[in-house]
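Repro case for the chain-ordering regression, as requested:
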Amino acid sequence: MDKWIKIALIFTLLIFSLEGFAQKQRFPKPEFGTGYSQPTPVTPEPRALALEYTDVIVLLIVLSLSSWIAIKDRSRKKMLWLSVFTLLYFGFYRDGCICAIGSVQNVALTIFDPGYAISITTLLFFLLPLIFTLYFGRTFCAGACPLGAIQDLLIVKPLSLPEWLRKTLGILPYLYLALAVLFAATGTDFIICRYDPFVGIFRMDAAFHMVIIGIAFLLMGMFVARPYCRFLCPYGVLLNWMSKFSKWHLAITPAACIQCKLCSDSCPFDAIDYPTDEKQVKQRIWGVNRFLVYAVLIPLWIIIGGYAGSKAHVWISKANPKVYLAELLISKPEVRLDEKNLDVQAFLSSGKSMEMLVDEASVIRRKFYFGGWIAGGFMGLVIGMTLLNQIIFRTKKDYQPNKGNCYSCVRCVTYCPVKN
Amino acid sequence: MLNVNSHKQIRGIEMENSPKNSRRDFIKKGTRLSLLLTLGAVGGIAAKHLTGEKYVWQIDPFKCTQCGRCATSCVMSPSAVKCIHAYDLCGYCDLCGGYLKPDANQRSTAAENQLCPTAAIQRKYIEEPYFEYVIDESLCIGCAKCVKGCTSFGNGSLHLQIIQNRCLNCNECSIARLCPSEAISRVKASNPYKVKGSFTKEGKS
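-- result from build under test --
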């Protein structure tokens, strides 16, 4: 008997739903007497997948060329033309998207959100430059990065920055990376893409404030060479790590360094390490004790950083629209009456209950809490390691590029009088 | 600051093949290998969700609440979002909620009666009492005023779509981030549109 009731129920539901569907068209389409032919809506296709793979192949070719120029050919002119090509192709033709710098976020999102599928192109844009850097140094920065290229081409009179300033500002990329991964992993925002200062210039179209920031960066870059690369680029952090342990790297001199100092001012990025000073050798005895103290302090830095990050999670999580909306509705219930608040009105008309929103928001906030610990701990580690690096003593015999910071732009090579 | 002039050459302290050097090389090699393995691991984890398919952004017209942000939030100006007309759903009404202002004084093509701020909808007489409405995409700015009118008073045949040859396919769509009704999502590039009619609320995947 039960079965029949169920079947009857299903039938009535079916009839009702069909009726509902028919009623949706308030004004049924007319039958035309004259020979009217109905146009079809135009829906142009997106850029073909094959062209995306072309981008990967172009990146591979540019990376190979750039590495070959930096290691074997050592011609600044060739590197310059390669960066012009990169600027035109990846910058102005491809509108700056997708780029390796932004792909960090896609990788973070796909690791933490199984619902997001990363495309092969994006993953390769993330991995290829890192692998190349692990073998050839940061040749990606010199020849294959459109953001690097636009800044590199506009260097006019680079100033040398004092070391303390470089080291302090050098912490910013780590913070940017930590925040970018945190925001991407929680599905909040892709801040690297949103605050990319040059993408508006590539597209010749952007929000007014981003145009101003972009132009400001370029103007600053005339005197402080590659300001974005050195003091902001989050992908540069990863490249720096890879490059420090690269198998091969650009060398200033093709043979033995004759200590002529001609190259010492050639690097616009202060990325040439000078030979060790005798004064520093004397300080070494003091250095050992300080080294131990600084090393012991690192776990403390990590804990402080993590604690600060976890404390800041409430504030940082407000960047997430869902958390923000839930907080707003709880703290200011009168906002429900505000006709102009589109977010609130859209939520109220969506039929979602307040509990559902609060649940979703608290799940996201929980992620921010753990993310805050990790990101903060990471920043603590970075600060601790930066301080430790200040007192680490390394004997250097010659003028050498600093493997972590050198972009392999080949400028210094032209200053070296040693040929072969 | 390093004083370049006062440096002393301390060459010869380390021989090329001293044990210290080979140890350093060993550490370097080991670190390089572990970095490579880390990259492989990250790539491997990411590859679990790898897709060979290309994804593009698209609006679900049934979720859209016509808030008007598509016109202002896109990185392109004018926006890559434009109005699409699903003619199958159109009633070809004389009194069109998408074309005429609610307070229009007559049903004519006069500018003061048009809802569209850029006059991108062309009204064409077909036969008594039917009119055809065609969107001129070069004029449309995606403000959704007509969509709101059509959805409120008509069949909802006018609706917004992201026009794929205009969309730059940003890594993260700046409209999707601000969309109050979460109507914009990534869809497969092999099926890049959600045009009403061919994509009905019942039949959507």
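Ordering looks correct now. Chain A is about 65% helix and 0% strand.
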